[in-house]
């Protein structure tokens, strides 16, 4: 039984859940990086190995979202992101495992190797991919695809929010907070005063803030904004926090109220850079350091920027006097063999630009 259901058994009877991941994900002591930064208690929560064949932070959210889709009799799911969306790929992989079709509505972004890899893996998983040039175009295309697929299958596709960060998806990271609490109690790491994580759709950071607070941990989540401010801002973060707590309390009134959002989460804007997926010098340095010292791969869109914030704060003396954790949200599973020989020309033509 997952830690959240152990703490609040009523939730188990009220919320559908399907086990997709491999938990608990390990805690890694970053001794060499910590020594270089002057941090004696630096750890990493390795959600990169959260699932097989694909890890990362999205698996936790999909355990609740896809279970809800199955319970409601959906035949397909539709979700949203940028062209190289890790969330869209994870949704395609795990939806297929449950016998669901996947439709991905994707916006343009800066090209990168991971964009190519994710698109080819989505193709392999049979996802239906649509490239939408603007947000208004995405909205119009989504309305059309919802109608087309409803006529085709007789069922409205189940809608999954960008990043899986609806209140229901966020519950996956409330559970992650309870999972970490259990690992701390078992001595896997000291209680962190700060946890650094990328904030792209905010479900990971908000869920952790709720879960750790409900478990009685005095930890501050450093939510490092990595997407446009119209999608990631304090108002949206507060709303997601309150809606997730309300959802949990609607199923189990003994779950603590935790309102309003308080000092256990801080949204940081200064590490975003020029645009979504545009690399920053800090992210590139952070990625290189993590690879050189710990042998762990990150990427420049999300995790590199989050680690850059941790490094910057360490050098500024902001986090020198307490345990620190970096929450790795980036898939660590190798997709090379799965996409070997894949031809990008089989993708819809608008995606070919990412291979030029």
Helix and strand arrangement:
Elements: H1 3-7, H2 9-14, E1 27-29, H3 31-37, E2 42-46, H4 58-71, E3 76-82, H5 86-97, E4 101-107, H6 113-124, E5 128-131, H7 135-153, E6 158-159, H8 167-185, E7 194-199, H9 203-214, E8 220-225, H10 234-251, E9 265-268, H11 281-294, H12 303-315, E10 324-328, H13 336-339
Parallel strand pairs: 2-10, 3-4, 3-6, 4-5, 7-8, 7-10, 8-9
Antiparallel strand pairs: 1-2
Assembly level? single chain
| Strand line-up of the largest beta sheet | 1-2-10-7-8-9
User: What level of helicity do the residues show?
Assistant: 40-55%
**What is the CA-atom radius of gyration, in angstroms?**
19 Å
Secondary-structure element pattern, one letter each: HHEHEHEHEHEHEHEHEHEHHEH
Regions with little confidence, pLDDT below 50 for 5+ residues? none
Per DSSP, the total helix count is 13
Mean pLDDT: 96
Overall form = globular
Structural class of the helices, strands and pairings? Answer: alpha/beta
Beta strands, count = 10
Strand content: 5-15%
How far the N terminus sits from the C terminus, by CA atoms, comes to: 47 Å
Largest sheet: 6 strands, mixed
